[in-house]
Amino acid sequence: MTFGEKIKEARLAMNLSQTELAQLTGISERSLYTYEQLGTIPRKGNIRKLAEALHVSVAYLLDDQETNTQSHIDEDMFLAEAREQFGAKGAKEAQEVLGRVSSLFAGGDLDEDAKDVFFQALMAVYMDSKKNAKEKFTPKKYRKHKKLAQSEI
Predict the structure, then answer these.
(1) Closest by Cα among 7, 13, 53 to 33
(2) Backbone angles phi, psi at 37, to 5 degrees
(3) Cα(8)–Cα(60) distance, rounded to whole angstroms?
(4) Which end of the chain is more exposed for a tag (fewer CB within 10 A), N or C?
(5) Rounded to whole angstroms, what are the CA distances from 9 to 5, 21, 72, 99, 116?
(6) Segments making up each domain of the chain, as ranges
(7) How far apart are CA 111 and CA 105, in angstroms?
(8) Which residues have a Cβ under 8 Å from the Cβ of 24 and sit 6 or more positions away?
(9) What integer pLDDT is reported at residue 145 of this predicted model?
(10) What is the DSSP string of the chain?
(11) Has domain 3-62 been given CATH number 3.40.50.300?
(12) pLDDT value at position 26?
C-alpha cells in the first residue's frame, strides 16, 4: 500500500473529508489531493501532522509493507491513550502486551473457541480493574453522593 493510499484509507476510516483533514492539519486541500492521488511524499513536518491527525505512526505511513490500516489506527490510539493516562512507562508496557498478544494470535495454535475464551477473560480482567480503580481512586465524598442518589431511585 502506498503512502497516498494509507492517507486516504486512514482519513476515510475516521470519516474525514479532505477539507476536514486540511483544517485539522493546516495542510492545503490541494496538497492532500497530491499526496493521496499522485503519491507525492510531503515534507517531514507535514508527515508528522498527518500521522497525528489520523492517529497513526509516521513509521506506518512511510513503511510500504504495512497494509492493515484499521488495526494500526486502533493500536496507535490505544498507545496514545495509555501514554496520556499512565505516562511513557505505561505506554511501553501496553505496547509490550500488544506485541505478546499479537504474537500469540499470529503464530499460535489457537482455534476460534480458545480466542473467544481469551477475549472473555481479558474483558473480565478489564471490567474488574475498572471497578477496582473506580473504588480506589474516586474520592469518598463522591462515592457517598452516588450511593445516596442510587438509593433514592
Answers:
(1) 7
(2) -90, -35
(3) 13
(4) C
(5) 6, 12, 12, 24, 29
(6) 3-62, 68-108, 113-153
(7) 9
(8) 16, 53
(9) 52
(10) --HHHHHHHHHHHTT--HHHHHHHHT--HHHHHHHHHH-----HHHHHHHHHHHT--HHHHH-TT---HHHHHHHHHHHHHHHHHHHHHHHHHHHHHHHHHHHHHHHS---HHHHHHHHHHHHHHHHHHHHHHHHHHS-HHHHHHHHHHHHH-
(11) no
(12) 94
Long-range own/partner contacts, residues 134-139 (CB < 8 A, 24 or more apart): none
Mean pLDDT by 10 residues, the chain (153 residues): 87 90 94 90 88 83 62 65 77 76 64 73 75 72 55 54
pLDDT value of residue 72: 58
Radius of gyration of the chain (CA): 21
- Nearest 10 degrees: CA dihedral of 78, 74, 57, 11? -130
CA distance linking residue 82 with residue 15, whole number of Å: 24
CA neighbor of 5 nearest in space, from 40, 57, 48, 43: 40
Residue where the block lists cell 503464530: 107
